[in-house]
Amino acid sequence: MSNGVWKWALAGGLAVLLGIAAGTLSLRPHGVSITSGTLLGTPRPIDEFTLQSAAGTPFTRADLGGHWTVVFAGFTFCPDVCPTTLTELKAVKAQLGDSADAIRFLFLSVDPERDTPEKIGQYLRFFDPGFIGATGDAASLEKLGANLGFVYAKVPGATPESYTIDHSTALILIDPQARVAGYLTPPFKPDTMATDLKAIVAAAP
Question: Which pTM value belongs to this model?
Answer without folding.
Answer: 0.85
